[in-house]
Specification:
The protein is 26% helix and 26% strand. The protein has helices at residues 42-49, 66-69, 72-81, 96-107, 163-168, 176-180, 195-198, 219-223, 241-246, 252-262, 280-289; strands at residues 4-10, 24-29, 32-36, 56-60, 88-92, 115-119, 127-130, 134-140, 148-154, 160-161, 185-186, 192-193, 199-200, 207-211, 229-233, 267-270, 293-295, 301-303, 311-312. The chain has an eight-stranded mixed beta sheet.
Length: 313
């Protein structure tokens, strides 16, 4: 199967700690890298991950709070020092241009690559990026400022050719792509060989939803229904539910409810408040609602392309 990996660079909330950096991830789809948020310390975490700086296609920012963007300008400057020449597209909410264009003009004026900022409407789902292998769209969230999550959906791959059948029926190489696309084959005697005899089903597609920071949104379950894996903020335990509501965050219980209602494959909890010396209480609360839940960890790599279920590498 094709590569579809989630690399968690930081999964803490507003205050970075010795154990956790604030929010940042890299989604690796067939060696094309997409960054989600860029907190302070992200470029160092990216170096430790051994992911290639040059393979980064785009950066998607959920919102413009510091614990999601303070690492951006330093990383962009570093890319210039490393000689990057490929354009880099950055997507984010209203005020992205106002906040970052002056910094880019000042700190990255001599960079050998172009930085292109895209302001997006976080209130509606919309496709932001599409190529041959993946579609990236927004997920409206509800926070104190404009905020959205992101949904990565892998595109279906062609069916797999059965080499023995191709050889048996003497099918020319020029027709293999047509058969992968679903075409039957007609022999010289006029017999029609159905496609399912010539091929095997394609690999199942993977999908990933990244949702932070937000109060619980029941509407979200429909937008992410059936995704392979959901990352949802769990800033607080249920005993701090009133604080979660006041600050427009979610509890672990509420994250579990979203995962259950959306019938996702796996839930990853993240964006943990620094008040907790251990996040086990968050894991326990979510697992009571949605058993297939794990805690995010800085440096964690999750393989979504595993035939059975996402694997932690």
């Amino acid at each position: 199967m094709e590569k579809f990996e989630i690399n968690i660079l930081g999964c803490g909330a507003a205050l970075p700690t010795p154990r956790r950096l604030s929010s940042s991830q890299v989604v690796n789809i067939r060696e094309k890298l997409f960054m989600l948020d860029c907190a302070e310390g992200t470029q160092m975490a990216l170096r430790r991950s051994r992911l290639s700086f040059s393979h980064l296609q785009a950066i998607f920012l959920t919102h413009l709070h510091g614990d999601h963007v303070f690492g951006l300008i330093g990383m962009l400057s570093t890319f210039g020092l490393l000689g990057r020449i490929q354009d880099l597209h950055i997507y984010g909410p209203l005020d992205l241009q106002r906040i970052f264009q002056p910094q880019i003009d000042y700190f990255c004026a001599d960079s050998p690559y172009q930085i292109i900022l895209h302001e997006i409407d976080t209130r509606i789902p919309q496709v932001l990026y599409e190529d041959r292998s993946v579609i990236v769209s927004t997920l409206p969230l509800a926070h104190r400022i404009p905020c959205c999550g992101y949904l990565f959906r892998e595109k279906p791959t062609p069916r797999h050719i059965r080499r023995d059948m191709i050889d048996f029926y003497h099918i020319p190489v020029s027709q293999i792509n047509n058969i992968k696309a679903g075409m039957d084959w007609t022999t010289s005697e006029g017999d029609i060989i159905p496609n399912d005899r010539l091929t095997t089903p394609p690999d199942p597609v993977c999908s990933y939803a990244y949702c932070t920071d937000t109060i619980p949104r029941p509407q979200l379950a429909e937008l992410i229904h059936g995704v392979t894996c959901l990352y949802h903020e769990a800033t607080f335990a249920q005993e701090h539910a009133l604080l979660a509501k006041k600050t427009f965050h979610s509890t672990a219980t509420q994250a579990g409810q979203i995962a259950r209602d959306a019938q996702v494959g796996r839930l990853i909890l993240g964006h943990f408040s620094s008040r907790y010396s251990s996040e086990d209480i968050l894991l326990q609360e979510a697992q009571q609602i949605f058993p297939n839940t794990i805690l995010a960890e800085d440096g964690m790599k999750i393989d979504l392309s595993s035939p059975s279920e996402p694997r932690i590498l």
